[in-house]
Design brief:
Strand content: 25-35%
Oligomer: single chain
Number of helices: 5
Number of strands: 6
Helix content: 40-55%
CATH class of one domain: Alpha Beta
Shape: globular
Distance between the termini: 100 Å
Length: about 180
């Protein structure tokens, strides 16, 4: 009778240890997270009035054509924000570590850019041309030409804009613009 009780005690202890330790070991190896995360994020409220930082970041897009399309759209948004001096839109487009080079060759960080931006009252229209994207993981470089139509005529600039994929979106980290002669 004592041996049977001892046997049951040992087996019970092993079962309890297995119930506690196996899920922890599986979680550390990543096996348990696969199913758990699928349910955690599917119930999030997508109708939030203020955007919250994503808990899980999506991977950077890898399709060059899709990235070129997304960055072309972002360039248009950036241009509209520049023309309207829309600081909140620019704050979202520019990464916190953004550094741009002005036409006179000076560098300007995000804070200075936002502080000094003024509404553009002369640009009537613009168009992008010769756009090319170079994609490397979570980084992309967009090069091209932008033409601005103003009352004084057309102005043309070559640009190199660099982006990084952060917070599940592209953010500009640098920009260099030079006049086309």
């Amino acid at each position: 009778m004592g041996l049977l009780a001892l046997f049951l005690l040992v087996v019970g202890g092993l079962v309890i240890a297995a119930v506690i330790l196996i899920p922890r070991m599986a979680q550390r190896s990543g096996v348990a997270n696969t199913n758990r995360n699928a349910n955690v994020y599917s119930n999030e409220n997508t109708n939030r009035s203020t955007p919250a930082r994503e808990s899980v970041e999506s991977s950077a897009p890898t399709d060059e054509a899709a990235v070129l399309s997304a960055l072309t759209e972002l360039e248009h948004e950036w241009t509209v924000a520049n023309i309207n001096a829309d600081k909140s839109k620019l704050d979202r487009i520019l990464a916190d570590d953004y550094v741009g080079t002005t036409l006179d060759g000076k560098t300007q960080g995000k804070a200075d850019y936002l502080r000094t931006i003024e509404r553009d009252t002369v640009t009537k229209n613009w168009e992008f041309d010769d756009l090319e994207v170079d994609l490397l993981g979570d980084r992309a470089t967009l090069t091209g030409v932008v033409r601005f139509e103003t009352p004084d005529g057309e102005r043309e600039f070559r640009f190199v804009d660099k982006f990084v994929w952060r917070d599940s979106r592209w953010q500009a980290t640098s920009s260099v613009v030079t006049p086309v002669q």
